[in-house]
Amino acid sequence: MHVQIIVLPLSVANCEGLKLRQLTFTSLPLRTLSLRTLCFTTLGFLMATACAAAPQSLALFNGKIYTGNPAQPRAEAVLAIDGRIVAVGTRNDVLARTPSDARRIDLKGHSLFPGFTDAHAHLAGIGFRDLMFDLEGVASLAELKDRLRKRVSATDPGDWIEGRGWLESRWNPAKFPIRNDLDEVAADRAVVLTRADGHALVANSLALKRANIDRDTEDPPGGKIEKDPATGEPTGMLIDEAMKLVQHLIPSPTDAEILNALESGARRSVRLGWTQLQYAGTSWREVDLLCQLRAAGKLNLRVYVAIDGPGTDADRLLKEGPSLQRCGDRVTVRAIKVYIDGALGSRGAALLSPYNDAPGTDGLLVNSADTLLPTFIAALKRGIQIQTHAIGDRGNRIILDLYGKTFAAVPAAQRAVKDPRWRIEHAQVLSPLDIPRFAKLGVIASMQPSHAIGDLFFAPQRLGADRLTGAYAWRSLLDAGATIAAGSDAPVEKGDPRIEFYAAVARRSIDGFADANWHLEQRVSREQALNMLTLAPAVAAFEEQSRGSIEIGKQADFSVFSSDLMSVSDAEILQAEPVLTVIGGEVVYERN
Fold first, then answer.
1. What secondary structure does DSSP assign to 352-365, as a single string?
2. What is the spatial distance between Cα 434 and Cα 117, in angstroms, rounded to a whole number?
3. Is residue 193 within 8 Å of 177, Cβ to Cβ?
4. Contact, 127 vs 137, CB < 8 A?
């Protein structure tokens, strides 16, 4: 049975040429079309996209189409009109209903999925990684020095040298670099090199001197200044909040530089197959720059933004409330990102008992529960989502306790959003006792599968065998009923959907290695991995009604890869090529 709906959009400021559009939804019998689905064709959704250029009609066929919809898991073809999916079914049926002026794309056997979403990444950081002094993949201290030496020769003596990406865990020996190492190469200019996780840096002597850091400088709250146990002098390693002692001296990037980084990061993301990136902490300044890019036609990627907090930017969001259509349908602002602890690699993650390889420390608390509670209560009343960085088992327990305390303090009747869908970002090391609490509290675990294949080279030493049971515990969380939204944490990790999918199902390094104690029982199925990268992030962004699966009425966001990620071998997942990225019915990347 055909359902015809006539929609006449209202006049919207700065919109021209709006026309009456007749949509025919025909791929399902009327009895299977829910009221919710039909509502997507109403004026409300068209208002959100009225100011954007109307996407062309688009039919895709002759490939393996995985819908992510349990009621119709596979299809032969899909049709989108005006950015929305209007038909999902057999090739003959869909093509028979395709307008004559539609673009028809023969997938040639490639595999089409709901648009992949990176549920945790840092967009400007991705762009700056490609534009600045990149130390990713440095295999030894000697190689780090060699790269720094070349960088010195290309800069002026008065310039700061700022780099990021080194990771000592696979060096031999696996030790942090110190200021003396940098002084050997660059004593005449200030050097600051940040670890890949962004939670530690090494500074040379000149940078420390400019920051007035010496043997008498005390650790700031939530940070640590590493000092030589024999001399008491700072080694140059600054952990978490201590990094700010130096970072505030480094010249800030200009708007033009940030715009360049945002555009570069977004362009890279769609080229890899991402259709949305959930930005885990930024400023209103960057939100405004994202809107500038969108207005200039340079931002196709969807961006779901969390504002850094607590602080003035977060206070502004609490005052103004969520901004769901900040600049059309591509930028949403409705969350606040906070931190409770640091990172595992730099021993800043807060643990319930001391580090196995450093018995003198159990990590750092970047914020206190008392500091965060007022922000949490205000957010729950205002309808603002909270996203908290928590890596260690102590950090995660503190936040689960604090979320529970906040939910008890603000009953549902006083909440702007009854189901707040608050998140814990990373949820990396958990006490088994805390795993069931995610589902019980309705807390979403926003996790990055690639952390498990990067950290396997040092996490056993940091944690010891017993604590590995609750580390990167995807399957245990899913079995306990939790929702896992998967992301990459780029630029900490590569930021590639193929690697995240592979890591979730293989739980091995890129070259296939996994230690015997690496708990391979925590691997997930292909279907679970797909859900973690598509529908679950949509749920985590309150968007499951409009995104995350290929269903009638939903936005036409698709990721197409050359290989069938659902059936090829684990190793072959990494060889799949991104072929096509479609966002809102618009082809934003197409491999030649």
1. SS-BTTBTT----B
2. 27
3. yes
4. no
pLDDT at 55: 66
Question: What is the pLDDT, as a whole number, of residue 535?
Answer: 98
Count of residues for the chain? 592
Per DSSP, which regions of 82-178 are E strands?
Answer: 84-89, 103-106, 111-114, 116-121, 133-134, 161-166
Amino acid 180: pLDDT: 94
Spell out the domains of the chain, with CATH numbers in brackets.
1-115+549-592 (2.30.40.10), 125-247 (3.10.310.70)
- CA-to-CA distance for 215 and 227, rounded, in angstroms? 7
pLDDT at 35 over 80: no
The candidate with the shortest Cα–Cα distance to 135, out of 192, 206, 189, is 192
Helix/strand/coil percent split, the chain, to 5: 35, 25, 40
Phi, psi torsion values for 456, nearest 5 degrees: -60, -15
Distance CA 114, CA 224 (A): 43
**Would you state the pLDDT for residue 384?**
98
Q: What is the pTM of this model?
A: 0.87
Helix (H, G, I), strand (E, B) or coil at 576: coil
Distance CA 323, CA 309 (A): 17
- Say which residues have a Cβ less than 8 Å from residue 529's Cβ, sequence separation at least 6: 449, 486, 501, 504, 505
Closest residue by Cα to residue 73 from 113, 21, 123? 113
